[in-house]
Amino acid sequence: MTSLFVTGTDTDAGKTVVSVALIDLLKQQGLRVAGMKPIASGCELTEVGLRNDDAMQLAQHANVHLPYDMINPYAFQPAIAPHIAAEQVNVAIDLDVIKHNFEQIQQQADVVVVEGAGGWLVPINQQHTIADIASILNLPVILVVAIRLGCINHALLSVNAIAQSGLRLVGWVANSVTSNNEQDEIIATLKQRINAPCLGIVPTLTAQQDAKDYIELGDLSSKNC
User: Fold this and answer.
1) How far apart are CA 83 and CA 138, in angstroms?
2) CA end-to-end distance (rounded Å), the chain
3) What pLDDT score was predicted for residue 14?
């Protein structure tokens, strides 16, 4: 089993919902699973420092418990693009720091679910994007597609960009973020055009529903991980 990088078509696509579901499903396979959120904006200032809700959810669902700063080495308070948030506080986001933390986590877990920020090509500094994090970690990718107007274009552009990065797209998840009368047609179009399996269709969840019940992870090793 390998670790995974979860990216989305854009902000609020449902990356955390899917990442948490993946952690829960992998735990059901008897694996030691950790979560990682290398960069997070929109953090809350607490008594113990900046904390990001997405990163906290990953940590709470994981069965490998780690220091917060290892899970989320770059935390920023403003809910803005990471490179802008970093510039405002004179922080340089360093890929080597992220890789070092990932390797430390990997030593303690069978699988690490790494969640990106925003979409695939969101800048993190003057030279690099979220894609470079996935590349330096050399991880297979799962794409979360927010099913809404415009998502076909966003999804196919993301798929092409992932391929150009030389990384493997091992699957994608359709996440129903809004009511859409054409949802079935949109998903059918994406299934036809994305050369990777659809791992699930997550509906707009109620408090009683869990995303993991709508995702079929199967054996990712059979998907060329």
Assistant:
1) 22
2) 8
3) 94
Among 37, 99, 212, 223, the one annotated catalytic: 37
Distance CA 158, CA 135 (A): 15
Alpha carbon 201 to chain centroid, angstroms: 16
- Under CATH, to which class is 4-223 assigned? alpha beta
37 is catalytic: yes
CA distances, 27 to each of 39, 47, 159, 160, 189 (Å): 24, 31, 28, 31, 32
Confidence of residue 138 (pLDDT cuts 50, 70, 90): very high
- Contact between residue 168 and residue 138 where contact means Cβ atoms under 8 Å apart: no
Measured CA to CA in angstroms, residue 2 lies from 134, 165, 225 at distances of 13, 18, 7
Residue 203 to residue 190: CA distance in whole angstroms: 16
Query: Global pTM?
Result: 0.94
